[in-house]
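for the writeup, i need someone to sanity check this before i put it in the appendix. the sequnce is what the collaborator sent (i think, or maybe the updated version? ugh). structure was predicted straight from it, no edits. if anything looks off just tell me and ill rerun, i have time this weekend
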Amino acid sequence: MSRTSDNRAVRPQPKVVAIGGGNGLAATLRSVRTFTDDVTAVVSVADDGGSSGRLRELMHILPPGDLRKCLVALAEPGSMLAAAFAHRFTEGELAGHSLGNLLLARLMEVANDPIGGLDEAGRLLGVRGRVFPATIEPVVLKAETDGGTVIGQVAVMGNTHIRRVSLVPDDVVAPQPVLAALRSADLIVLGPGSLFTSVLAAVAVPGITDAINASSGRTVYVCNLRPQIPETAGFDVGMHVESLVEHGVSADVAIYDSSGISLGSPCIPVVETPLSRPNGMAHDPDKLADALSGLLG
């Protein structure tokens, strides 16, 4: 434990790892950065839609969209560059692309290393912590549903009665810094976000589940504010937790807001607390920060 100049003990900052993708993971990162600088984002890279899907196919790179959102979430508040990263073109050949996606795609290409490109983008943005892809290898999301096998993240998002998701190929590996961060974490946060196409798409990378379960830190699942139609239509908190268990993830606790989703019968302890913004459409960063930091003891 370090000490200040007047010899008072200073507690080390908690080590937090957040896993998932999209706007949900970005919301968690905005919350976590308010109480620690030692944060690691582990981002699903199975996205095959929109700007990310177009750049992925054209440049043979990892889809940059969710990685960009996480970098912006961890950037200095009020950063002009972060605001520029989020700008999306609406006309011409660049229509649909965000500036950040294009810059990040080029950085990863120039570095010839996705992680090196992400680290450089993080340096430019003044990011606290680091952002990693769940794997640096190209992957496709596959789901087993009541109606059969579905291939591709966008296609999976349009289905219901999803039983299990996995990746193609099934022998990809997680970056070693990701596994090391998970093993040493004080808190591992799963979600919020699309259960099957973001959270479990990241967890599906071999080695990540084992590292989560081997960690001495606490693992928390942040449930969505309401069922996501059609992916989790009819799901309550217990069904979310059951899906984690069926994919090999042992969470210690779940947190949820009862205003938009029912509890059901979860097999782990649950904390019910207000989490939504006034409009009820997204998680409030301050409320989520209070809930997460309260789990650190």
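The two ends are 17 Å apart (CA to CA). The mean pLDDT is 92.
thx in advance!!
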